[in-house]
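Provenance

Sequences were taken from public entries as deposited. Structures were produced by running a predictor on each sequence independently, with no templates supplied. The record for NAD-dependent epimerase/dehydratase family protein from Micromonospora rubida is shown for reference.
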Amino acid sequence: MSLHLIVGAGPVGTATARLLAAAGERVRVVTRRGTGPDHPGVERVAADAADPDRLAALAEGAVALYNCANPAYHRWSIDWPPLAAALLAAAGRTDAVLATVGNLYGYGPVDGPMTEATPPAAPGTKGRVRNRMWAEALAAHRAGQARVTEVRGSDYLGAGATSLPMMLLPGVLAGRRVVLPVDFDAPHTWTYVEDVARTLVAAAADERAWGRAWHVPSPPAVSARELANRAAALAGAPAPRLTRLPYPALWLGGLVNPFARELRETAYQFDRSYLLDSTAATATLGLAPTPLDRALAETVAALRGVIPPVDRTSTGDRQR
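Predicted structure for NAD-dependent epimerase/dehydratase family protein:
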């Protein structure tokens, strides 16, 4: 039985904690308010993960340190640098493998499927923040100062996820018209939260995975319209009514809504095909994606209140 330290109790942090606890591992979850999954194998600690000394003390003896945190969307440039630095410092001081939940923002607009070799060419602030975090972690790894890995998925499906499906599906299940700044017919990759957790744990434990990033195994892409249709069929809801919001309306909304303002930067993800190639993780780590309908069924159940909501804190993961 080994100790695993998880920072963040959002959907991925919670799924990772439960996965490890079910395997008989010791799990310690750190959030600002001491929240996390209610499980006898999970210890919940209230602490500021951006404090490198406190985090290193909590990580002492841990085999892995999982970065499942995510600051508020509009505060990435402010909150991520000290938090990422503390995580990297704690990993270096304790020799715990630092396994980070990343996303696809760092690639920027891409024509064709994204692989781990796709150049990090993000033009926006959020993508550049993620790229800088990974570059600093990779430099520490290559200098022998820490052991690091990162896993990246697309928009999440699953209990507690907060991504495009969570803006789309509640209205679909309620039979309401859904208006979003989305090309509903563009193929899009969707990633199941439980698959993110499985990939994160596998990458932390396998030294072949250290020193590089991995894409989470995800099912074949389908459009947002197809996703909505499948969800409606699973729930016995009416046929979805979907309307695309013009970009100028999104831009105007950003004048008063911080979240809408941040969406301007990543609007390209939803106006064209957005495809994730995850064959490397499947081949090397032996992981296969959960079938889309199973992931979607859990998401629908969670939205209908069958599955309890996931704890969220200021250090809980929220986006891709």
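The two ends are 30 Å apart (CA to CA).
Confidence is low (pLDDT under 50) at residues 307-320.
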